[in-house]
Amino acid sequence: MANPNPFSNQYATTARAGSALETNKVLKNTYLLLAATLGFSAVTAMISMALAMPSWVYLVSVIGAMLLGMFVLPRAAQSAKGVGLIFVITGMLGFGLGSILSMYLALPNGPSIIATAFGGTALIFLGLSGYALTSKRDFSFLGGFLFAGMMVVVVAMIANIFLNMPALALAVSGAIILLMSGFILFDTSRIKSGAETNYIMATYGIYLAIFNIFISLLQILGIMGDE
Of 23, 76, 49, 58, whose CA–CA distance to 204 is shortest? Predict the structure, then answer.
C-alpha cells in the first residue's frame, strides 16, 4: 500500500540525520573539552608540585571541586559560563593532585609508580571509550549497578578510616577502578545514544572517572610497592 503522505518518510530521514549530526557534535565537543581540561589539570598539578603544596591541599581541593560540580555546574552548564567553571573545577583537582604526586615522587620507585598509573589509566580510558563507541550495545543499564556500587564503596571507605586496613584499602581502590570503568562505558553510551546532550556535563563525568582511576591505580601500586 502506498504511503498516503510521501513527505513523512523524508521528514523522518531528515530528523534522524539531524539527530546523528547533533550526537556527533556532542561527542566532538566532549572529547575536545576533555583533552583541554586534562591538559589544564596537568599544568595546575605541576604548579602545585613546584610550590611543594602539603598533602592536605588534595582533600580541600577535592571537596571544593565536588561541591562546585554537584551544586553549581549543572546550572552553569546550560550556558557558556559552564566552560569556565569546568576549568576551575578540573584545575582545582589538578592542583590537589600535585601534592599527592609530590609524595609519590619522594618514594624510591615513585616515578615508576606514577608512569605506570598514567599508562594504565590511558589504556583503560582509550580501550573502554573505543569499545563503547564501536559496540552496538547500550550500556545505560549499568546506571543502577554503578549507583549501588558507589554506595558500597563509600561505606567501605568510611569504615577503613577507622580500621586502617591495607587489604581493605586495596580492595576499595580496585572496586573504584571497576566502577569508574563502568561509568566510562555508561557516560560514553549515553552520549552516543543521544541521551546526554550537554557536552560540559559529559566532560565532567568522564573526567571524574579518569581522575579516580588514576588515583586508585596510584594507591594500588603504592601499597604493592611497600610490600
Answer: 76
Per the CB < 8 A criterion, the answer to whether 117 and 214 are in contact is: yes
User: Among residues 174, 189, 94, which one has the least CA distance to residue 140?
Assistant: 189
- Are the beta carbons of 197 and 26 closer than 8 angstroms? yes
- CA dist 218 to 57, 155, 156, 184, Å? 17, 21, 19, 19
Q: Which three cell numbers stand for residue 176?
A: 573504584
Per-residue confidence (pLDDT) for residue 19, from 0 to 100 = 75
| 211 Cβ contact list (under 8 Å, min separation 6) | 41, 93, 97
Q: Tell me the residue ranges of DSSP E strands in 17-60.
A: none
CA distance 197 to 40: 24
Confidence of residue 194 (pLDDT cuts 50, 70, 90): very high
pTM: 0.91
Q: Confirm if 114 and 105 have CB atoms less than 8 A apart.
A: yes
Beta strands per DSSP E along 73-165: none
d(CA 202, CA 226): 37
Percent helix, strand and coil across the chain, each rounded to 5? 85, 0, 15
Q: How far is Cα 71 from Cα 66, in angstroms, rounded to an integer? A: 8
Residue-averaged pLDDT of the chain: 92
- Total Cβ atoms within 10 A of residue 156: 16
Q: How confident is the model at residue 4 (pLDDT cuts 50, 70, 90)?
A: low
